[in-house]
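# nightly structure sweep
# worker-07 picked up a monomer target from the shared queue
# config: single-sequence mode, recycle default, output format = structure tokens
# input follows
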Amino acid sequence: MTIERLTGRPDLHPAADAQPQRDIWLSVRRGLQCRCPACGEGAIFDGYLRIADRCPACGEELHHHRADDLPPYIVITIVGHIIITLVLAVEMFADYSTTTQMILWPLLTLAVALVMMRPVKGAVVGYQWALHMHGFGGPQEDEAALRPRAGNTDKKERERP
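# output follows
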């Protein structure tokens, strides 16, 4: 999907057209399945939430991802909607004691959040891969990320004579 299709204006970054198009929805779906966004075969995770450095099936490098805080934000939003809906439904149709509810809802919230975290993080990595973000674009993007930027105010840069 190009900027021009969304806004009617030409793409501001013509170099993006040089990269092959990747199917966003297929990549996100593969990420939700905790599979490599490139091939859909290899496992994307090395541990519970640790992304593998590369796909064991196709060798695609995955260490570039920058999922950071987005997956927890998405999970909190989804879990909040699910739990609040359930709390309101139970309040309307059932009469559980306060003690029962104080035990039930936090445990259910924790369980749903822990179950959802891996697929959501996989989907975010798949989305980044499909859009060539954060080093998933190729060697020219990796080299550009390593070059120092003009006006760098890094402490080491300031200390140089």
